[in-house]
Amino acid sequence: MKKISRRHFGKIISSVGMASALSMPSLVLGASRKVVVIGGGFGGATAAKYLRKLDSSIEVTLVEPNPTFYTCPWSNTVLGGINTMNDIGHGYGALKNKHGVKVIHARAKWVSGNKTVTLEDGRQLSFDRAVVSPGIDLRFDSMPGYDQAATEKMPHSWQAGPQTALLRKQLEAMPNGGTVLICPPGNPFRCPPGPYERTSLIAHYLKNHKPKSKIVVLDAKEKFSKQGLFMSGWDLHYGDLIEWRAASAGGKISRVDPISMEVETEFGMEKGNVVNFIPAQHAGKIARDSGLTNSKGWCPVNQVTFESELLPGVHVIGDSSIAGKMPKSGFSANSQGKVAAASIVSLFEGTEPITPSYANTCYSLVTPNHGISVAKVYEISDNKIVGIKGSGGLSPKAETAAVRAQEAIYTKGWYDAITQDMFG
Prior knowledge:
Elements lengths: L5 H9 L4 H4 L11 E5 L5 H11 L4 E5 L5 E2 L4 H5 L9 E2 L2 H5 L4 E3 L3 E5 L3 E4 L4 E3 L2 E4 L3 E3 L23 H12 L5 E5 L10 H16 L4 E5 L8 H12 L3 E4 L7 E5 L4 E4 L2 E4 L2 E4 L3 E3 L1 H5 L9 E2 L13 E3 L4 E2 L7 H20 L8 E10 L2 E12 L2 E4 L5 E2 L6 H23 L1
Parallel strand pairs: 1-2, 1-9, 2-5, 9-20, 11-12, 11-17, 12-13, 19-21
Antiparallel strand pairs: 3-4, 6-7, 7-8, 10-18, 14-15, 15-16, 22-23, 23-24, 23-25
C-alpha cells in the first residue's frame, strides 16, 4: 500500500490550481469506503475533489442543495458594478464527470452518530466518514429588529446569491445624493476584510454613477483587518465619500428598523437609502442540529485532522470550524478541505495523519485597479493552529500605483485559480 508522503502532502495543501498538485496520481488504497461531504463551497467541494484524487476507490457523495454555487469572494465586484452574477456562479459538472464525485442536489437535515446523513426529503446516506462544511448562518437573535423578513429590506448579502442581487438592485435604484449604511458585526465572522472591500467597491460605483452620495460604516469593532491599507486607499480614491465610525465613536448599533430604514446608535437614529446590515454569525444549521457546535455556536475540532471533538468520524471544515488562528475565509476553507481529505485517506489506511501546515492569502480590491493583500502561514503547536512568526506579510502602505494595479491583477488571478482548484 502507498502512503501519502510529506512532500506530496505539502503540494496538496499549498496548491490553488497549480499543475503540480492537480496532476498528482491517484493513490488506490484498497477496499472502497464511503465518504459523504455536506456543503459544496470552498471547503466541501475541495474536500470531495481531493478525496477522489488521493484515493479513487473512495465513494464520495457531495450533498449540496444548489446546482450553482455563488462565491462570496468576488461578490463585492458585483455590488460595485464590475462583474455580474454569472461571473461568480460555478457548477458541479467537473466534479461529477471528471472526478467521479456523486452529487446530490438536496438539503442535508442532520448527521447522526450511527454514521448516517438524513436528507430533508427523508433519504438516508450511510458513510464511513463524513465531512461537514456548511458555512455560516446568521444570528437573527443578535440584533433587535432584524429577522428573516428584514433581510428583504436590509440585505446582509453575506451568503452570495439572491441577497447579492438584491443589494445590487437597491444600489442601482438609490437616488444620487443618497446614503448607504454598511454595518459590520463584531468578531468572529466570515471574511474579516469583506465589509471593507465591499465599502470600497460600492464607493467605486457611487463615485462613477452617483457622486453626490455617501457611505457611512457603522462598525461594531474598534479596528478591522487591513485597516491602514483600506483607509489610505479611501483617502486616495474617494475623499469624503466614505465615513467610518468605530464602535466607541457611534458605530455600535443597538436596534434596527427595516420599515423606516433606520438603525439606532448611542447618538440617535441613522437613516439610509440602502442599509447593508451584516448580523453576527454562527455555524450552519446542520452543524448545530447535529450536535457539532459548542455553547458559542462554533464547531470544536482536532486541528490536525479537523475531526469533530463532539461527533467521532465527522470532520468539520470551513467557516463553521474552530481553526485556531486561521481566519474564516475561502482560502482557509480550501486549505482545510485538502487537510481533511488527506487525513481521511490516512485514517482509512490505519496510518498516522501527517501534521499539516496551512496558508491563507487574502486579496482585496479598493478600486478595480488598486489591490491589497495579507498572507500568513500556520503550523500546529500543542495541537493548535498558530501563525508562524515572521511568515506572510501585508502590502506596504506606501506603494506606487503600478504595484497596486499589479496586486489587483493578482486578485483576479487568485480567484480564477482557487475556483478552478475547487470546481475544475
